Amino acid sequence: MENLSRRKFIKQGGIMASVFVLPLSFHSILNKKEMSDKKHFDVIIIGGSYSGLAAAMALGRALRKVLIIDNEKPCNRQTPHSHNFLTQDGKAPKEIASLAKQQVSMYDTVVFHNNLATNASKTENGFEVQTSSGDIFKSKKLIFATGIKDEMPNIKGFSECWGISVLHCPYCHGYEVRNETTGILGNGEYGFEFSKLISNWSKDLTLFTNGKSTLTSEQAAELERHHIKTVEKEIEELEHINGQLQNIIFKDGSKKSLKVIYTRLPFKQHCLIPEHLGCELTEDGYIKIDTSHKTTINDIFACGDNVTRMRTVANAVSMGTTTGMMINKELIEEKFTDKK
Ligand SMILES: Cc1cc2nc3c(=O)[nH]c(=O)nc-3n(C[C@H](O)[C@H](O)[C@H](O)COP(=O)(O)OP(=O)(O)OC[C@H]3O[C@@H](n4cnc5c(N)ncnc54)[C@H](O)[C@@H]3O)c2cc1C
């Protein structure tokens, strides 16, 4: 009692008294309001990795009530080290995300909900999002920062090597495996262009077409002129130790020792909710957005890997920040013009 100020004492006493005096229904109204406040947000961000967290930071700092729903399955989770992002070069992906989350958590305007968003629907004033826990949250605007899902080919050992010695991007990992015995898994125009790109990092380069080559004769000649070999044999298995590639085993039983393979995989949107809400996709399968990251549906925005093939942490963060700023601007405009 000593440390309790008079004003605080009176306030607490008042609250205590109200417990006995006020009718029960009034308390349940209060509880309901508090609970509904906890479920109502200016913006719900589905996907709380680099892009979603960056959007949350911009919005949280703009005093917007933000909910991040995330089930912690970022696309780079198997990679031991992430590169090419200033101040975080060489750190584990999880370490970068954890620090980001810790910094975003400092803002009392931002709330986290670790779960899978299973459904979302349009309401009169915005959106309702449901999660696998059965919770339902409401917001005026939605951001999808949900990334993409790489589709692994049916080659034994491939998925174990993904992000460790089977790589998607030389800017992220090329420096670490420079001048090593390197393979490209690809064919046709894409195989040709990717081989040209990777020749910047290694002169010991082979294009594996995993079946008959579909290179034009000009492309094949051009690769040969630059000492890039082409192998058409079908691949059975990637032999590896803890994801570190040792050999490619071919279906004919032969093998080739190799340090690293680059390839670009087909992908699906990680989250199908934007499509269910009517957001259009591009021909390549990305969510269609305008320059303010707005999708083709009003009040729904998207950022990060789900909208671009320029797939880097730096780019995901940059897009998230921009999206957050754009949504805040839109909310201000709506308030000034009494639109909502
Ligand atoms: C193997 C690999 C290695 C890479 N290495 C590098 C590197 O070294 N340097 C670099 O700059 N970039 C690298 N990248 C690219 C980089 O990882 C991505 O550009 C970046 O992760 C994209 O961030 P994002 O927030 O858009 O998506 P992601 O990081 O993929 O995160 C999407 C988040 O959304 C969540 N989510 C999706 N759907 C739902 C849902 N319905 N409900 C709740 N949550 C949901 C997921 O669980 C996930 O947490 C690498 C990529 C891969 C695949």
Could you describe the 3D structure shown?
By secondary structure, the protein is of the alpha/beta class. The chain folds into two domains: 38-150 and 266-337, FAD/NAD(P)-binding domain (3-Layer(bba) Sandwich); 158-262, FAD/NAD(P)-binding domain, CATH 3.50.50. Helix content is 33%, strand content 24%. The protein has ten helices and 17 strands. Strands 1, 2, 3, 4, 5, 6 and 17 form a seven-stranded mixed sheet that branches. A five-stranded parallel sheet has the order 8-15-9-10-11, with helices on one face. It has a three-stranded antiparallel sheet with strand order 12-13-14. β9 (182-185), α7 (188-198) and β10 form a beta-alpha-beta unit. α3 packs parallel to α4 (93-105) and α3 runs parallel beside α10. The radius of gyration is 26 Å and the shape is elongated. The structure holds flavin-adenine dinucleotide. Flavin-adenine dinucleotide binds at residues 46-52, 69-76, 79, 82-85, 116-117, 145-147, 150, 162-163, 168, 172-173, 270-271, 304-305, 311-314, 316.
